[in-house]
Amino acid sequence: MAESAPLAARRSGRLIAHLWMVLGVIVVAFPVYYVFVASTHSLQTILRPPLPLLPGSEAVRNYSEAFSGGVSRIGGVSLWRLLANTTIVAMGIALGKIAISMASAYAIVFFRFPLRMACFWLIFITLMLPVEVRIQPTYKVMVDLGLINTYPGLILPLIASATATLLFRQFFMTIPDELLEAARVDGAGPWRFFKDILWPLSLTNVAAIFVIQFIYGWTQYLWPLLVTNSNEMNTIVIALKKMVSFADADTPWHLVMVTSVLAILPPILVVVLMQRWFVKGLVETEK
Question: How far apart are CA 159 and CA 177, in angstroms?
Fold first, then answer.
C-alpha cells in the first residue's frame, strides 16, 4: 500500500504534464488550423462571421486562383514566383551564414595569429548591431554596388552571424587536441582536416543552425521591403502585406489565407523533417 501511493502520484503527475502539453499544442496549432479553414471558404463566407470551423468547398478554386497569379494587388505575381523568391533568399541566408560562421570559427579556434581573440570579440560585439541599426549605411552600400532589387542584395547583408560563429566555436573547442595531432602526423593539411574530420563531426550542428537561419531568412520583412522595388522580386511576406487593404471589403481574404498557409508550410516542413538533427545539434556536447 505504501508503494502504490508514490506510483499513483507519478501517474497523476504524468497525466497533468500531458494535459498541459496537449493544451499547449491546441493553443499553438488552432490559429494555423483556422487559417487553413479560412483558405477553403469563399470571400463572402469569410466576410460573414462567424467563420465555420470545418473546411469548405472552395479550396481547389482558391488555391488555383492564387497560383495562377490572380492577386491583382501585387501585380498579378503568382505564388510560384513568390515562393521561389522566398526560398532563394532563405536558402542563401542559411547557407551563407553557415559557410562564413564555420570559416571564421575554424580560423579562430585552430589557427594562431595576432589578435585572434580580439577578432572573435569584434565578431561577437556585432550582436549589438542588428540590421535595423545599420540599415541606412547598408542600404547605401547596396545602392553603390547596384544590388537593389537583386537576389545578392537581398542575401549578402544578412549572411554574417555572430551567433552561429559562437556556436561553431564552442563546438570546435570540444575537439580533442589528440585528434588534431593525429591529423598532422598523417600529413593532413588545414583543408583536409576540415573536410575529412571537422565537417562530418559538425553535421548535427550545421543542421541545427540551418533550421534556425532558414526560418530567420524566410520571415524577413524589413530588409526585403527596402531593397526591392518590383513585384517580381517580392518575398511571400511582403506580398501578404501588399494584399491586405485598410478596408475589409477591398481585401481578397480568401487569397490572403491561401498565401498565409503556403507561407507557413515550408518552415514547418523544415522543422519537422530536420527535428531529430535539430535537437541533437543543440543538446549534444560531446562527439
Answer: 30
